[in-house]
């Protein structure tokens, strides 16, 4: 039986960019799960709330575009946020096909409780703000290149 040097093996797990991203995503999700437990939000719900905290009253399609989620994935998530009293969903007066999502007072108040999360993530990652920004920008660039046909 022949063993290959892992650094020379194109199929070695530790050589794969996809596995580095995947395993890092798992670790990041675990961290966020613990931080978001107090807010009673899942990570995808937190992302949707961040979109609305940035600009209230958006259509489902606008939110989905920013989160790169389709409405079939986003609608159940938004329904759970509505059931929790954090958002309202209603048909647009201008276009009945569109559903507008808006924060409730409770949803706006949750923002104050969530403000410490980015700092907690920064502490856990042990990255300087510059390192974190560099990683973020590199990942955004990679995603753009992968999305370009």
Write a concise synopsis of the structure shown.
The chain is 61% helix and 8% strand. The protein is built from seven helices and three strands, in the order ααβααββααα. Pfam families: Staph_reg_Sar_Rot.
Task: Please describe the structure with a list of short key phrases separated by commas or semicolons.
149 residues; mainly alpha; Arc Repressor Mutant, subunit A; 2 domains; 3-stranded antiparallel sheet
Number of domains: 2
What would the CATH topology of the largest domain be?
Arc Repressor Mutant, subunit A
**Principal-axis shape:** globular
Q: Pick out the low-confidence regions.
A: none
Annotated CATH architecture of the largest domain: Orthogonal Bundle
CATH class of the largest domain: Mainly Alpha
Structural class: mainly alpha
Give, in spatial order, the strands making up the sheet with the most strands. Answer: 1-3-2
Largest sheet: 3 strands, antiparallel
How many runs of DSSP E, i.e. beta strands? 3
Proportion in β-strands: 5-15%
Q: What would CATH call the homologous superfamily of the largest domain?
A: Winged helix-like DNA-binding domain superfamily/Winged helix DNA-binding domain
């Amino acid at each position: 039986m022949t063993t290959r040097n892992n650094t020379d093996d194109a199929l070695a797990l530790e050589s794969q960019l996809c596995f580095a991203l995947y395993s890092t995503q798992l670790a990041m999700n675990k961290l966020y799960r613990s931080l978001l437990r107090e807010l009673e939000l899942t990570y995808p719900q937190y992302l949707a709330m961040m979109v609305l905290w940035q600009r209230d009253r958006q259509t489902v399609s606008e939110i989905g575009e920013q989160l790169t989620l389709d409405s079939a994935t986003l609608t159940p998530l938004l329904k759970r946020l509505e059931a929790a009293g954090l958002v309202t969903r209603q048909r647009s007066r201008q276009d009945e096909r569109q559903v507008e999502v808006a924060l409730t007072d409770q949803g706006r108040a949750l923002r104050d409780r969530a403000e410490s999360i980015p700092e907690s993530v920064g502490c856990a990652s042990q990255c300087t703000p510059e390192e974190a920004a560099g990683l973020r920008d590199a990942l955004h660039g990679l995603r753009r290149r992968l999305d370009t046909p």
